[in-house]
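Sharing a chain and its predicted structure for anyone who wants a worked example. Both blocks are below, sequence first, tokens second.
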Amino acid sequence: MNGCASAGVLPGLKHRWRAEAGALMSSRDEIFDDANGDLAIGNLENAVEKYGRCVEIDPEFFDGWHALGMALMKLGRYPEAIEAGKRATELRPNDQIGWTSLSLFYNRNGDIKEAEAAGTKAKILSWGGKIAGT
């Protein structure tokens, strides 16, 4: 926070930022729940659109990126699924499910070498290891 706000020049601003952040999280979570409902009934296009909105609201939302990748994969949009999966693994490099899903996305796209590399990372994590550099 800059010096002006901390010096009291903008009283209540910090509280307003927190309130707005809370509203965004609530909105993100509500949209995510709606997307999960769409996914459950097979409305994949709507699910993709809503998961996309979730990650626009909160680009650090691992579950949103992971779910977006899974829905894109189910639609056969493998290159987009791979990009979502890569973002998920960037956010949580030691998450086994993220690497497992990314491996699946690569496999479906015919990228066997990349699928095996992601699968190896998932296996390392399943054994209790960590991914280098994290």
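Comments welcome. The CA atoms of residues 85 and 101 lie 7 Å apart.
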